[in-house]
Amino acid sequence: MCIGKETERLGHGDWVRAGRRHLERNHGVCPFCQQSAPERLAGELNDYFDATFLEEEQLLARLEQQYRQDAHAIRQWLDQILLAPARLLDVELLQHLKYRFEQGVTINLYRMENKRKEPGLSVTLESLADDLCRLGDLVAGVNQQIVEQNRLLKQLHEEQGRLIAEFWRHLLDGEFAPLLQAYHLNSREYTQTLLELDQRITQCKQDMRTLEQERTALTDSLITIQPAIDGMNGLLEMIGMHGFVVVPAEPHGYRLVRPNGTDALETISDGERGLLTLLYFYYLARGSLALHQVADDRIVVLDDPTVGLDPETMHFAARVLRKLIGLVRQPESRIRQLWILTHDPRFLQDVTVHPFRLSGQPLEDESFWKIRKDRHGSSVERLAVIGF
């Protein structure tokens, strides 16, 4: 007879395990029948409890641990649902089923713990299948209702769109049909009119460009520098410069002639050349030689106009610039600003001669500045009195 198999058949594992402990203390006396114990009894008991019993005990521990994990996962799932329940969910029923589930889990865990302490104890776990099925059916039913409502809402939006489209189609094909026909007719007429206007505007712009080109060509053909020649000769006479005069030359130029009638181009000095350049610039500053540019506003800048002039022609140049300054002060003048840059203090004194100037002070409409340059750079200083 195998003690292990008989123990399993009779279900007396706890009783046999307790007797095994007494066998070790009774010095060979069988704890079950109080007679001399067979020699193989201790070995068979050790084999049974060292292998089979230990294996079953570990299996029971694993089942209990798995049961705890599964119950915890279900409890978390139910808590998440109750944290933000759906509108269609029967919350009271779900809470009741959750309570029944937790009670059943608590009872079963208690029984498993007793079974683990007394392996021979026969226990029966409470069945939670019905409660879990009801929980699953409850959640699945709510999900199905949500799906159905979403389908109805989608269908409602589609029906609303279809209704709106049919409504507008009814209006457009019925009450608004004459108005739409009139609109389309007028729209085509307006579109045609706008197209014709765009074409006319394009043609007018082209005609304007053509006329402008013709006007410029006619203006150029009428240009004459005779007024500038007469003015330069008048200035030469006024400043006392009698070394040459300016006469017209074809087609729109001029040439220099000495008082004896000979050409002065080859014999003109650098000072006379600089003075003549200043005279021509004077007339350019007054107004362009092209008639269509006479009304343009301008800022005139003369950078060191005394370069290459001898003292006599420098004096003549100063008189020309005083006349230009007087022209700038006239209200109808198109010269808005006049800048004169020079290194010559005597030329500056000669140019700024004015009957109303007191002690070299600037007049109200003028200012004088000094530019200093050193190894650090340049600086500009406004002067209270004319001078270097």
Q: What is the radius of gyration computed over CA atoms, rounded to a whole number of angstroms? A: 61 Å
The count of β-strands is 6
The geometry reads as: elongated
Instruction: Please estimate the helix content.
Output: 55-70%
Broad structural category: mainly alpha
Mean pLDDT: 78
Q: Strand sequence of the main sheet, in spatial order? A: 1-2
Q: What's the main sheet like?
A: 2 strands, antiparallel
Order of helices and strands: HHHHHHHEEHEHEHEE
Characterize the structure shown.
The chain is built from 10 helices and 6 strands, in the order H-H-H-H-H-H-H-E-E-H-E-H-E-H-E-E. The termini are far apart. Strands 1-2 form a two-stranded antiparallel ribbon. Strands 3-4 form a two-stranded parallel ribbon. Among the domains are: 3-132, no CATH class; 224-353, 3-Layer(aba) Sandwich (Rossmann fold), CATH 3.40.50. It is mainly alpha-helical and 388 residues long. Helix 3 (39-83) packs antiparallel against helix 4, helix 4 runs antiparallel to helix 5 (129-173) and helix 9 (311-328) packs across helix 10.
Give a quick set of tags describing it.
10 helices, 388 residues, two-stranded antiparallel sheet, Rossmann fold, mainly alpha, 6 strands, two-stranded parallel sheet
Write the layout of secondary structure elements.
Elements: H1 3-10, H2 13-25, H3 39-83, H4 91-117, H5 129-173, H6 177-222, H7 226-238, E1 245-249, E2 253-257, H8 270-286, E3 298-303, H9 311-328, E4 335-341, H10 345-351, E5 368-374, E6 377-383
Parallel strand pairs: 3-4
Antiparallel strand pairs: 1-2, 5-6
